[in-house]
Specification:
Two copies of one chain form a homodimer. The first copy, chain A, is mostly helical. The first copy, chain A, is built from nine helices and no strands. Chains A and B meet through helix 6, helix 7, helix 8 and helix 9 of A and helix 6, helix 7, helix 8 and helix 9 of B. Chain A binds a DNA duplex through helix 3.
Chain lengths: ~220, ~220
DNA sequence: TTATTTTTGTATCGTTCTGTATAAAATAAG
DNA sequence: CTTATTTTATACAGAACGATACAAAAATAA
């Protein structure tokens, strides 16, 4: 059944709040949806079903937006996918920021980063979604060169974040001066990839936590 | 353009050898394709484009089999996907067997296993395919419970193989008796997952090899 | 009010998709 | 040779897909 305008108030799709009030009053008819919320819904849908596995009807239903409006606001399917992925990356940057706080020790930072990853990867209404980069975007890179560059950038960004962590620890004397931080960093990043895969496959949380614990222990072998 | 029977000899699809000669002469018209070869083609196609991204036309073209014959031989799309995945697992078991040879040291075994992984994950006519389990099957587990069990089994199998390696090393005295093999094993397995993702994203081979080298070094820290 | 601009909702177009019906072709058995 | 059996090739049915045309609706500007 299709949404009906049976009242005086325009029917907003269930659960989708109306357009952001802070928007400066523009000329024409106002949007009936909040762009950010709708994009988050698209992100979840793509993460669940992948690019090819998600139809525009799925997106339209999940976002509570009719297809023509969807095209007007986000472009075609590929463009929407790209925007959803960018939004995911931005969201992750926020989520992980706490793990990179300068007052944390190497061990604390790694613990927090892995705990965040487990929480993010395990979330999902229909089951754990894993990581957009690892599960969804990386699968699509063979068909989309632009996307591949974004994925490469995302992987490099994680490697770099880990590298900074280890370099900082070495500068602080948490690690010996000869610690091979260039080797440790991508290994630390690898744990994220594995956590994503295992979480998606519904590995028990205890297993994920054990992996994280073991990784921290091993990566901090040289730490004082 | 469609395959034409313009000669007396039945036209086998280009590059696909005729049915296996060792097949016992059965009653009706013989198959024009080798089941194993066709399945390998299906596997490659699914690995390139994923389940939803691969159409039956794609499969039919890649396998050199008309759709009705395809259904007759392999069932519907899901069934074919499952068989292709099982074939991948069997192929991997063969490929990795050498790394688990009993005469290898822990370090040698890990080096060989990671080298094998890099070779497998980097192969592909249209670009590196990564790992079926990590890239393709794990993405699909949300829509297919049966597949999820297979993926879980595949991940557990890798963890177990790594565990056996570390246990063997400890028994042989390569590792100290108090080495935490239960923590080391899933970490060693994690490196495969990361190699798959990075290879798929076309990370330079040197980067993959550096990751493998670093992993071996770290995992063998306690090895004599 | 009236005109202008933008979004919404419906309906649809052409394509592609999965799966199958059907008849010709190819082989073994009788 | 005839019959039974299995596969192949063509063609097609019904549904789902991505994308868009069009008019009503809802807001601002004049």
């Amino acid at each position: 059944m299709v949404q009906k305008n049976n009242g005086k108030r325009r029917g907003a799709p269930p659960g989708v709040p109306a357009a952001e009030p802070e928007a400066p009053a523009k000329r024409g008819r106002p949007r009936a949806f909040a762009t950010e919320v709708a994009l988050a819904r698209a992100m979840d849908t793509f993460r669940d079903s992948g690019f090819a596995g998600t139809s525009l009807d799925d997106l339209s239903a999940a976002m509570g937006i009719n297809r023509p409006s969807l095209y007007g606001a986000f472009g075609d399917k590929r463009e929407l996918f790209g925007k959803a992925y960018e939004r995911y990356r931005a969201e992750m940057a926020e989520q992980f920021a706490a793990a990179f706080a300068p007052d944390l020790t190497l061990r604390q930072a790694l613990e927090k980063a892995y705990a965040t990853a487990i929480a993010v990867y395990s979330a999902g209404e229909n089951g754990p979604r894993g990581c957009f980069t690892v599960m969804t975007a990386a699968s699509e890179v063979m068909a989309d060169e632009r996307l591949r560059e974004t994925v490469t950038a995302a992987l490099a960004s994680t490697d770099r974040a880990m590298l900074r962590l280890f370099e900082r620890a070495r500068e602080r004397g948490e690690l010996p001066p000869d610690a091979d931080v260039a080797a440790l960093a991508p290994l630390a990043a690898s744990v994220f990839h594995s956590l994503a895969v295992r979480a998606r496959a519904r590995a028990p949380r205890a297993e994920l936590e054990a992996l994280a614990r073991g990784a921290v222990a091993l990566l901090c072998t040289q730490a004082r």
